[in-house]
Amino acid sequence: MKRIAIASLMLSIAVAAASSCSAATPAVLKTTELGRGPTIVFLHTLGGGRLQWMPVARKLIGSSRVVLVDLPGHGESTMPDPFSITACADAVAELLGKQNADSTILVGQGVGGMIAIKTLSTHPGTARGVLAIDAGLKLAQAVPDQMQQYFLQAIDTNYEAIMKPILTSGARDSVQRVAMWATASQVTHGDMKSYMTALLPADESKTFKDMKGAFEFIGTERVWEADKKWADLGKLLGYDESVPVDARRLTGAGALVAADQPDTLAMLVREFQSRALAKK
Question: What is the C-alpha separation between 180 and 165, in angstroms, rounded?
């Protein structure tokens, strides 16, 4: 009888584990696709949306195929269940599987840049490189576990007061600030909390070291102060000094970099695309 009971218990555990695995739901990403030629996939930052890239996309569609993506939980894209940065990267890799890997690059801003790096690290060969804009691999200053829990609890009771300044940081004026919050507020509180839960302890430094492919960092005035050297900024953002990084500072641009400097950003994207596709 004991053997039967133990066998029954083991079977129940196995069924529960199988059910748990099968319950995982991948994200389905909504895209806007324009133009023809080598592919450029754009990933926006936290609280953003795919159409924020349109000012620069218009400059590129004459020579490239541009794919604008809503990150999971943003715009018309669904969230993976369970949520993680890895699950986001898996969803992007699924999208990249429909492109020609040998002529595709990723452009990611903020969290979108982190996800792009994660994608190319965990799914090597799906694209030729990553152009990261204001993308950190970890928080500039570690937050103790207790403070993380306090912050996440505070979101539940004071969401707008806490998240609005964070999600509109880098706006160049009040008009941009209103527009950014209008877009960010479309992300549900629950989905945003899932992102914050994953990002607070995140450290993708090793992920970056393992990434294969071309890489370049562009820093706007939002993160790169005029008197700061890349060596110091890179260290704060989690980029290991042992891995050389091509880094450029873009002036006259903040959080909405595609709107602030569409011509300059388009030029930088074309230059990176050329180098990435030429790299063996």
Answer: 10
Tell me the pLDDT tens digit for each residue of 202-244. Answer: 999 999 998 999 999 999 999 999 999 999 999 999 998 778 8
Residue 143's contacts (CB-CB under 8 Å, 6 or more residues apart) are 151, 200, 201
Q: What are 278's two structure tokens?
A: 């030429």
Query: 């939002």: which residue's tokens?
Result: 222
CB neighbours of residue 82 within 10 Å: 11
Is-contact 143 196, C-beta < 8 A?
no
Q: CA 150 from chain center: how many Å?
A: 25
Residue pair 169/45 in contact by the 8 Å Cβ criterion: no
Q: Kindly give the pairing relationship between strand 31-34 and strand 65-69.
A: antiparallel
pTM: 0.90
Give the sign of the dihedral formed by CA 253, CA 126, CA 201, CA 44: positive
Structure tokens, 56: 């620069």
Q: Count of alpha carbons within 13 Å of 150, Cβ hemisphere only?
A: 5
Nearest to 210 by CA among 112, 123, 97: 123
Instruction: Name the one residue in this structure whose structure tokens are 């994953």.
Output: 198
Using the Cα atoms of residue 115, residue 37, residue 98 and residue 73 in order, give the sign of their dihedral: positive
Fold classification of 26-278 is Rossmann fold (3.40.50)
The three-point CA angle 230-243-94 to 5° equals 105
The pLDDT score that the predictor gives to residue 280 is: 67
CA distance 145 to 163: 19
- As beta bridge partners, residue 247 has 217
Asked if 87 contacts 28 with a C-beta cutoff of 8 angstroms, the reply is no
What percentage of the chain's residues is helix, strand, coil (to nearest 5)? 50, 15, 35
Distance CA 91, CA 70 (A): 11
Chain-centre distance of CA 113, in angstroms?
4
